[in-house]
Amino acid sequence: MPLVTVEEGESGGTVTICLPPLSEEDPLFSEKKRLSDARNLKFRYQLPVSSSTEEVLQILDQIVQAARILHMDEIELYFAEDDDGGPYSPRNELESLNSILIMINSLLTGAKTDIIQVLQVLKSKIITMINSVGVQNIDEMIIEKLDAGTEEMLLIWGEDHGVRTKLKIAHFKEAGRGAVASEDISMGDIALEIPESLIISEDLVRESDMYDPLKQLDDITSDTMLLLWSMRERYNSNSRFKIFFDTLPEEFNTGLSFGVDALAVLEGTLLLEELLQAKQLLRQQYDALCPKLCANHPKIFQQELYTWDKFLWACELWYSNGMKVVLSDGKLGTCLVPIAGLLNHSLCPHILHYGRVDQSTKSLKFRVSRSCKAGEQCYLSYGTFPGSHLITFYGFLPKGDNPYDVMPLDFDDCCNEDGRSNEAWTGESSRTTHMVRGTWLSKSDKPHAYGLPPPLLAHLRSVLKGDGIEQPPEGPKPDIHKENERAVLETVLSIFNPMLEGIGDSDDFERDNSRWDVKLAADYKDLQRRIISSVTKSCYSGLEMLDASA
Ligand SMILES: C[S@@+](CC[C@H](N)C(=O)[O-])C[C@H]1O[C@@H](n2cnc3c(N)ncnc32)[C@H](O)[C@@H]1O
Questions:
Q1: Which parts of the sequence belong to the SET domain (predicted)?
Q2: What Å distances lie between residue 361 and 112, 162, 163, 197, 325, CA to CA?
Q3: Domains of the chain: which residue ranges?
């Protein structure tokens, strides 16, 4: 789906700028519409060519606010406060600003002289804004060494097979290998291009002798077939991808490999349960598949290549390096993409979209959405994941404030006593799942916002008031009743105070000398403690404020 469509209109000395209208097919349509209406934002703007720079920038501010709403995801929308026009997250900001830049560039092509000036003012401001997203959000890693042995050979192999790159490989203290710009890469440029023929995809299993026995199994997915294929290919000295397999780590260090000490540190967190369940599921999958395949087809599935440890290694490989790609035949699948698999993740990435093979060039292009200077690490976005997911499947916590680090809250009371659901503001059945995140991320100045998400407050206010009708979080000012407010804050405290007790005080061991998993588990627990304490502190300040205004 194109992010932006361009409609140029010029009548009577006006430039018309159209953002794509909100689509009713967007599952978040009604909430985005409500928010844009509440803020009086439009998706079509008219700029007189005679406008002063100040006037142009004022309209641009409105355009940017509207684009931010268009590009909001569910979490950003859930936490959006009515007095905060953004930015909401580096991802949302980069998407929004890039979509406007694409539109302006397209308007500039063939524009008449009088409108070029207005468009240039817009363009230069947008470029400044994009650059400042990087400056404000990036936390650089420390390069340990640039020269990278086998990785260098992987790059040479790639270039011999049609890879084009403006990246070289470096080692970083915090993240192992990563990619660094070997020259200045400008916004919109392609940092890396991988021919489709180098992508490890389902087709390779279909072409192999494994396909016959595998396709006879019930319920086996293409992803699992490919995982089993990679377990053997890893040791195939004649593999076309030998150099790729040779550069893979011996150990992946994801949450799936946490030892007992690390798991003990996680006591009191939801992550402990998640990790144990994920591992148990993998073990069940292994037991159901590998022993039988090895017994029935010993020539194809050699027992020594299909041990539990090797299966777990392959799972970690696919979880931490797999990319969802739409191939040129239109099929979507999880693939391994040599060289691209060396890019690290950032909350403020350079590369946001990379999942579709270009039909005309039959290659996967990694285009930067913000510039990357020579020598800077070039980052990818792995997705909008909370820390628990990144630890489980990738084995790290990103630096900086992660807006997707949310704690879910399930409420049973989705309906009123008479059984009506609360459809007043959502237009859909009411949420049963709410969430919180660190209240330091809230930018609202409203006295009754408490740093908590508007839908959660609306839900609790209505449930505790007893009328069961939720106020639209962005709608007319909610009626503030002090006793109701107190009850809301006390309810939140009654959930989070026991959690804080359960998680306990900060572990007082020497982290720097601990194993990687124990240190990571302790960092995760600190983060959870910080989020929970921010919620309880905000509630206590809210209660104090209510007392003071009594
Ligand atoms: C796709 S690979 C990237 C290349 C990887 N650094 C390597 O040396 O093979 C994903 C892995 O890189 C590491 N990684 C990626 N982004 C990171 C980050 N921001 N901080 C720490 N580690 C990161 C994690 O170990 C993750 O599982």
A1: 165-383
A2: 33, 11, 12, 11, 15
A3: 9-137, 407-548
How many Cβ atoms sit within 10 Å of the Cβ of residue 515? 13
Q: How far is CA 326 from the centre of its chain?
A: 19
pTM of the model: 0.91
- At the top level of CATH, the class of 9-137 is alpha beta
Query: What's the 3-state SS for 394-445?
Result: HCCCCCCCCCCCCEEEECCCCECCCCCECCCCCCCCCCCEEEECCHHHCCCC
- Using the mean position of ligand 1's atoms as its centre, give its distance from the Cα of residue 349 in Å: 13
Distance from the alpha carbon of residue 345 to the mean position of ligand 1, in angstroms: 7
For ligand 1, whether the C-beta of 385 sits within 6 Å is no
**CA–CA gap between residue 54 and residue 87 (Å, rounded):** 21
Residue whose CB lies within 8 A of the most ligand 1 atoms, among 323, 324, 394, for a mutation test: 394
Residue 248 in contact with ligand 1 by CB distance below 6 A: no
Query: Given this model, what pLDDT does residue 444 score?
Result: 87
How many angstroms does the Cα of residue 175 sit away from the middle of ligand 1?
Answer: 5
Report pLDDT for 1: 39
ipTM of the complex: 1.00
Q: What single DSSP character describes residue 374?
A: T
